[in-house]
């Protein structure tokens, strides 16, 4: 059985992404560059980074609906996890995206919350 290896990232929506990122940097000490809306929180080994990021309020990246956040889960084998979820009747998106830092897939829980799965390179 495939299992989540860790949290790959936490993503928030904001009316003003840069201002919200600056607030988190100032008040919580999150390592977000002054001109950015994302930062790496931890890195305990290759592919084990946890990313924190702010997206515009109108982003479609979180899927349809009014969700104001999305969690990215780090997995060892994305294809096996997606197959396992589909076999269990979970709503899984067909698309998988490949980047030089890993592969991504998306699914939705029974409450309608979209989540992202990341297999690091």
UniProtKB/TrEMBL annotation:
This is VOC family protein. PROSITE patterns: VOC. It comes from Gemmata obscuriglobus. InterPro entries: Anthracycline_SecMetBiosynth, Glyas_Bleomycin-R_OHBP_Dase, Glyoxalase_6, VOC_core. Residues 6-120 form the VOC domain.
């Amino acid at each position: 059985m495939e299992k989540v290896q860790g949290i790959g990232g936490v993503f928030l929506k904001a009316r003003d992404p840069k201002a919200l990122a600056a607030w988190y940097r100032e008040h919580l000490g999150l390592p977000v560059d002054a001109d950015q809306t994302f930062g790496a929180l931890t890195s305990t080994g290759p592919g084990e980074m946890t990313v924190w990021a702010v997206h515009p309020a109108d982003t479609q990246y979180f899927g349809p609906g009014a969700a104001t956040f999305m969690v990215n889960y780090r997995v060892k084998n994305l294809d096996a996890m997606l197959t396992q979820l589909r076999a269990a009747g979970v709503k899984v998106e067909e698309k998988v995206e490949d980047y030089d830092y890993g592969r991504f897939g998306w699914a939705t829980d029974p409450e309608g919350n979209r989540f992202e799965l990341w297999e690091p390179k």
